[in-house]
Every structure is written in structure tokens, then in C-alpha cells.
Amino acid sequence: MPVQFSFSHDIAHHRLNRRLLQQRSADLLHLLKLEAAEVSVVFMGDVEMAAYNEQYRKKKGATNVLSFPAGEGDDGFPPQATELGDILVSVDTARREAARAGHSLHHRLIELIIHGMLHLIGYDHERSEDEAVRMWDYEKELFQQIQTTRSVAMPFLAINVDHVATIRQARGGVEPDPVLAASLCELAGADGIVVHLREDRRHIQDRDVRLLRQTVKTKLNLEMANAAEIVDIALEIVPDMITLVPEKRKELTTEGGLDVLANAKKLTKTIEKMRKAGIPVSLFVDADVAQVQAALDVGATFVELHTGPYCEARTMEDQEQQFRLIEQTAELAYETGLRVNAGHGLDYRNAHPIAGLPFIEELSIGHAVVSRAVLVGIENAVREMLAIVRAV
Predict the structure, then answer these.
(1) Domain 156-389 falls in which CATH fold?
(2) How far is CA 157 from each of CA 192, 238, 274, 354, rounded to the nearest angstrom?
(3) Which of 111, 135, 188, 255 is most open to solvent, judged by the fewest CB atoms within 10 Å of its CB?
(4) Catalytic residues, which ones?
(5) pTM higher than the cut 0.70
(6) How large is the average pLDDT for residues 141-147?
(7) What gap in Å lies between CA 342 and CA 353, rounded to an integer?
(8) Which residues are CB-contacts of 130 (< 8 A; sequence separation ≥ 6)?
């Protein structure tokens, strides 16, 4: 592996997303056209970094990053041609710097890895002011390019067929059948099917969920309130995953995300039941860092970020603000080790920017696709949405 990581025991209390750091480092080597190079990155605490700083730079205290280009070994033999050297990073110092700048820890760690890597290939900001400026500008350019690289594969598209059932329930008959609609969505290329079994059974029925469990070939995501009756049904049919959402009887559709902080105890119990049954749990939350952290604390595997405020924004400025909030929250969620989905209100006009966010791996879209299907058929509606989501 071109980039070898090691982590000191002194930083075990820091939550580090090793997959993210590994990928960003590999992306950096690619941008520098050094895919074949070998680099060692060591993450440590301030105490260990201070020892290196005093030994090799004759300076007291810790620094944020040190670079040691490959040189002759103790045996006098030159290093291999592909060997660049070692980068030492103090996670303690990086966390303090990130907090002062209002950035995430991983944001700062990636900046320091870039800085250290440029030192390994010959840049030195201490030689002259002009070189310091050139190095700083190049660091910013590389960081921006890395951040816009997707951290997960091309986003998946899951289709919510609730409103096919809404049309059926309007007449109290048997058509249109959401189970058949789900099959057509899969034939058109959808990566998953989503249904919300509400306590009042206003659209999806128990019969639908049981048949979908038997017929869905991709992935069945059961949206549900944290209600004992629905929990028991989920444990009985064992969907591929569940998404816990808030639920009010008078609402037309889900309004806002779960308050995980206020319901942590109940959610923890349900998530533990699902874990024992082998069912991953996603929590539908607003783009709020505190709620994301709470989702991690109660044991969720995923968060689904509520995109409603972004979709409902009345001005370009408001929409941009909501988009940036989703972007930042998705990054922080991914950094903690949570997997990130998004949904609610997405349609053919606004889904593409969300699909392009590098940390989001699946979009859940329902009403827009079912509405479009009335005019062009459900298979065409799904294919049109797939073209938008995958054009990132």
C-alpha cells in the first residue's frame, strides 16, 4: 500500500475515520502523480511529537507536523526509488488548531498531510517568502481538489413507493399496487425500495411490507416510528435496514428530523434489538451536528439527513445556506464513522447538487418520482431520476 498509516496509543481517545484519511492520502498521491510512491504517516500525541521536535529540530514543545524525506539508511544504502519518507502528525495539536479555525479535526489533519507531503517532494516555505506563498497556494488548491472527490462510490437511488399506496387507499381498492410498482422501479435500475409503515396505516399496509420483503431484489428500507407495534413487525420480517423517523398523526408527510438527544434512551433500546436481529438502523435527522453525534452515541449505523429545508428554500441565498449546512453535517457524520444518506423533498430540479456531495451514499426519493410517473410511467420516471443522480 503506497501510504502506510500508524497510530500511537496516546491518541486512542480521538475518534479518527481511518478510511477517510487513507482515501484522502491516496487521492493526494494521485493528484501529485505519485501513485507508485511509498509514504509513512504516523499519528501521535503532543508528548511524542515534542520528543521528535527536540531531537531533530532542537526545539521545545510539540509542532503540528514534521516531515522526514527518505535519505540514506543506517546501513549506508540509498532508499528505494519509490520511497518518499515519513510524515509525523500531532493529533492533539491538530484538534486545537481545528477548533480555533472552526473546522473539523479531519479537515485539519488532511491539511497537515498535504503540507507534510509537499515537504517530502522538495517544497520548503522557510527558504524564501515567495516559495512560502507558492507552497501555501498549492496546498489550498490540492485541498480543494481532494474535498470535491467523492469519498464513497457513485450515490445509490432508493425509491419510496408510499404514494402509489396513497392513490390505492384513496379508493379503498387494490390498485395501483405498491408491490408491483416496486418491482418496476427495480427493473428500471433503482438500487433500493423504501416504504413507511405508519401507525395509522394511511398508505402502506402490513400486507405490502410482507410481500415486499419476499419480492424486493435490491434492498428494502422500512421507515418507521419507534413504536412497539411497528418495531415488532420489523423484527418479524427483517428488512435490509430500517430508518427511524418522527411521526405525527396530523402531518401530511414527515416534518423535521428525530430529536435523538431527547429520545436517546428509547432509541438505544430499539437499536440494540435491531442489532441482535442483524438489521442496520438509520436515524432521520436534521442537518445538526449535535443530533448526528447523538445518533452515533445511541448506536446507529446510518443517518439520513433531512433535505426538506434545502428543497423548500424560497431564495437562492437560503437554498445555498441550507446546502452548505447539509454538506458540512454530512462530512462530520462521515468523519465519525457513520454512513450518510439523504432525503425528503428531493425532485428533478434539486437532487443533483445533493447527489454530488462526496460523503452521501444514497438518496431516498418518492413523491417526485411517483408524480412524474403519472405522466411518463414509473420506469421512465425512475430512469430519468437515475440519470440526474448518477451524473456526478
Answers:
(1) TIM Barrel (3.20.20)
(2) 7, 21, 24, 12
(3) 255
(4) 196, 223, 344
(5) yes
(6) 87
(7) 12
(8) none
Q: How confident is the model at residue 74 (pLDDT cuts 50, 70, 90)?
A: very low
Least confident residue range of 127-131, 149-153, 359-363, 380-384? 149-153
In the chain, where are the structural domains located?
3-147, 156-389
Pick the CATH number of 3-147 from 3.30.300.20, 3.40.390.30, 3.40.50.300, 3.30.1330.30: 3.40.390.30
Note the pLDDT of residue 72: 46
